[in-house]
Amino acid sequence: MASAELIKKLEDTIENIPDFPIPGIQFKDISPIFLDPKLYEEVIADLAAFSKGKVDAVCGIESRGYLFGIAIAVALEVPFILIRKAGKLPPPIISESYDLEYGSAIIETREGQIKTGQRILIHDDLLATGGTTEAAAKLVEKQGATVSQFSFLIGLKGLNGDEKLKKFGAEVYHILEY
Asked: In terms of Cα–Cα distance, which of 120, 119, 88, 85 is closest to 104?
């Protein structure tokens, strides 16, 4: 869906940082996008176009999912709902635990902010293995809503994140793929 021109601009802007945070990892630094307001607007327009008329609310995953997610929600004129790490939101909360490579984690949202029957877009900056995003989708479903879409700035090939999300029957979109 993204134009070749937008993809090229992003590829020229996002910095590849080798061996960060550990040797062997190629970190994709998206922070230079925020130095170019016009490019940021183009990214939001592209992500919002994917979801226009298809969602009732946007859920953003802490913390980098907020960087684009809030602006997508504003562009779509729908609510934005925070999905946070455990212990960051006041009660009442709904929680979902998930496994990490070494251990587990919990994400939460405030009870009552996601409404039964809503069509939800879950947004994050990057899709890797899909574990956190899968937990976010389960969190949405626990509250009687449907995940109709997932969107990301970047999708990492070979880590099977897209595969993990197929069970939700939702559209998956990322502007860039590495």
From this structure: 85
The pLDDT, as a whole number, for residue 103 is 84
How would DSSP label each residue in 99-166?
Answer: EETTEEEEEEEETTSSPTT-EEEEEEEEESS-HHHHHHHHHHHHTT-EEEEEEEEEE-TTS-HHHHHG
- Candidate list 15, 96, 101, 134, residue with the active-site label: 101
- The per-residue pLDDT for range 19-72, each reduced to its tens digit, is 999 999 999 999 999 999 999 999 999 999 999 999 999 999 999 999 999 999
pTM for this entry? 0.96
Active site residue 64: yes
Q: Is 101 considered catalytic here?
A: yes
**Cα Rg for the chain, rounded, in angstroms?**
16
| Residue 83 contacts residue 139 (beta carbons within 8 Å) | yes
For the chain, the distance separating the N- and C-terminal CA atoms, rounded to the nearest angstrom, is 16
**Looking at 64, 110, 141, 171, which residue is catalytic?**
64
